[in-house]
């Protein structure tokens, strides 16, 4: 019976990998749907997730070694065969608890189950090479530092070069390595309905391992959760899942009870809810998005969390609505971005087309300029992204401030070990174990600029 379960987990992982490569699906959504469809138990779901994410995180490295020992180039192999090879190779190289012989044999059986029996010999031969050379793999290709790091950590060379130019060799390698590691899940206490001590007891009673976040109050690092949404404390609205970086956006915004707030790119709603909790659910938060179904999800989440001050509106962040002009004490613009700060949670983001990303700063600037029109004199404007590229971060806010002299950056203080900032900050996962994030706080002057 246990062998059947392991096969189910592997087949689920293969199904996800084929969806990601063939249907351009996102790995996190595909995993959730496929695990539910295949009705995997929590242990098998965890294995399927580890396999799928592990292959995506190390795809370029796996393909390099497959290319060393396969008579065909990886790109010429049929997708189902290539992904079975990747799954087997990942288990041999990165999963100590799975014997190499079991990984090879299961891959051979998988290719037969998927109607490719003639490929069984190829699968067996290539993966046996991985097994034999596990401790002395072939050296990485010669080339520039960017080329070597690109293959070693399976990040596109253009991104590696950007990072080398921005933060240097040591930090770049730490960032790349961090993106391929298992990420802790962070949850935030909903102070409207409970307190951290009570929540911690509820989590332990539900069999969840929870420890206080080392420097962010009211937050926990949790593991052994299975499906978080099935937990009674979640269903009762006692917590929400939120990375520390996203939580810091609300802390940088410093909302006060009774504030009028706009969140112009709100979905899935975490920042709006965090602001509402900090405001004691007193005031008004208008949360906007361009997708009706996401607004519906936000409304249901707000209801679960016992939040009544949030209302939603269907609106494009680039389109001006005169009725909102200078009405908000605080406007948050968490703009669409490349997402390169959350690669460790969405590993397939690293493979995005850089040509598409080059158009983002213009869109981000348009949203920021439009959002600024909703800030009252003396009010605060927050710009944030989940990326680490300067072109989407400092370059956008620098350009905005150059064209809007009625705004200026304003320093803000975050919990230690961060402390006081000079009005903006880039958070790096290898430094603080947060998502990669950029936060900028600006205040609208009360007097007309000269």
- Superfamily at the CATH H level of the largest domain? Vaccinia Virus protein VP39
Low-confidence stretches: 1-6
Query: So, CATH architecture of the largest domain?
Result: 3-Layer(aba) Sandwich
Mean pLDDT: 93
The class by helix and strand makeup works out as alpha/beta
N- to C-terminal separation?
77 Å
Main beta-sheet annotation: 8 strands, mixed
Q: Strand share of the residues?
A: 15-25%
Q: Determine the CATH topology of the largest domain.
A: Rossmann fold
Can you give the helix content as a percent range? Answer: 40-55%
What is the domain total for the residues? 4
Shape: globular
- Count up the helices: 18
Q: If you compute it from the alpha carbons, what radius of gyration comes out, rounded to the nearest whole angstrom? A: 24 Å
Architecture overview:
Strand 6 (about 285-290), helix 14 and strand 7 form a beta-alpha-beta unit. This protein has four domains: about 1-130, Orthogonal Bundle (N-utilizing Substance Protein B Homolog, Chain A); about 145-180, no CATH class; about 185-240, Sun protein, domain 3 (Alpha-Beta Plaits, 2-Layer Sandwich), CATH 3.30.70; about 245-445, Rossmann fold. It has helices at about 1-20, 25-35, 40-55, 60-70, 80-95, 100-115, 120-130, 145-155, 155-180, 195-205, 230-235, 245-255, 270-280, 290-305, 355, 360-370, 395-405, 430, and strands at about 185-190, 210, 220-225, 240, 260-265, 285-290, 310-315, 330-335, 375-385, 405-410, 415, 420, 425, 435-445. The radius of gyration is 24 Å and the shape is globular. Strands 5, 6, 7, 8, 9, 10, 13 and 14 form an eight-stranded mixed β-sheet that branches. It has a four-stranded antiparallel β-sheet with strand order 2-3-1-4, with helices on one face. With about 450 residues, the chain is α/β, with parallel strands linked by helices. The termini are far apart.
């Amino acid at each position: 019976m246990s062998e059947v379960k392991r096969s189910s987990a592997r087949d689920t992982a293969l199904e996800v990998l084929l969806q990601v490569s063939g249907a351009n699906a996102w790995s996190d959504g595909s995993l959730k749907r496929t695990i539910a469809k295949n009705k995997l138990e929590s242990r098998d779901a965890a294995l399927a997730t580890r396999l799928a994410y592990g292959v995506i995180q190390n795809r370029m490295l796996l393909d390099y070694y497959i290319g060393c020992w396969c008579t065909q180039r990886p790109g010429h192999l049929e997708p189902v065969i290539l992904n079975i090879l990747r799954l087997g190779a990942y288990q041999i190289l990165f999963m100590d608890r799975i014997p190499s012989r079991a990984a090879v044999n299961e891959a051979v059986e998988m290719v037969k189950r998927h109607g490719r029996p003639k490929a069984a010999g190829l699968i067996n031969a290539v993966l046996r090479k991985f097994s034999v050379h596990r401790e002395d793999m072939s050296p990485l290709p010669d080339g520039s530092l960017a080329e070597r790091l690109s293959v070693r950590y399976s990040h596109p060379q253009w991104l590696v070069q950007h990072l080398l130019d921005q933060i240097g060799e040591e930090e770049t390698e730490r960032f790349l390595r961090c993106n391929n590691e298992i990420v802790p899940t962070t949850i935030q206490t909903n102070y409207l309905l409970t307190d951290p001590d009570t929540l911690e007891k509820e989590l332990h009673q539900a069999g969840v391992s929870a420890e206080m976040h080392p420097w962010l109050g009211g937050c926990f690092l949790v593991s052994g959760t299975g499906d978080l949404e099935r937990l009674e404390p979640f269903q009762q609205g006692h917590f929400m899942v939120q990375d520390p970086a996203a939580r810091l956006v609300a802390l940088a915004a410093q909302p006060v009870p009774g504030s009028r707030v706009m969140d112009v790119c709100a979905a899935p709603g975490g920042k709006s809810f965090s602001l509402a909790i900090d405001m004691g659910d007193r005031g008004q938060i208008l949360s906007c998005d361009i997708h009706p179904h996401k607004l519906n999800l936000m409304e249901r989440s707000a209801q679960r969390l016992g939040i009544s001050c949030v209302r939603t509106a269907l609106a494009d962040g680039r389109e001006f609505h005169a009725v909102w002009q200078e009405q908000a004490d605080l406007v948050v613009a968490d703009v669409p971005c490349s997402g390169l700060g959350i690669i460790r949670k969405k590993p397939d983001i690293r493979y995005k087309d850089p040509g598409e990303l080059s158009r983002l700063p213009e869109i981000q600037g348009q949203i920021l300029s439009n959002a600024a029109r909703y800030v009252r004199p003396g009010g605060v404007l927050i710009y944030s992204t989940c990326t680490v590229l300067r072109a989407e971060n400092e370059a956008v806010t620098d350009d905005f401030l150059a064209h809007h002299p009625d705004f200026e950056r304003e320093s803000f203080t975050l919990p230690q070990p961060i402390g006081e900032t000079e009005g903006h900050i880039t958070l790096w996962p290898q430094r603080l174990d947060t998502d990669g994030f950029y936060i900028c706080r600006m205040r609208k002057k009360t007097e007309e600029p000269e």
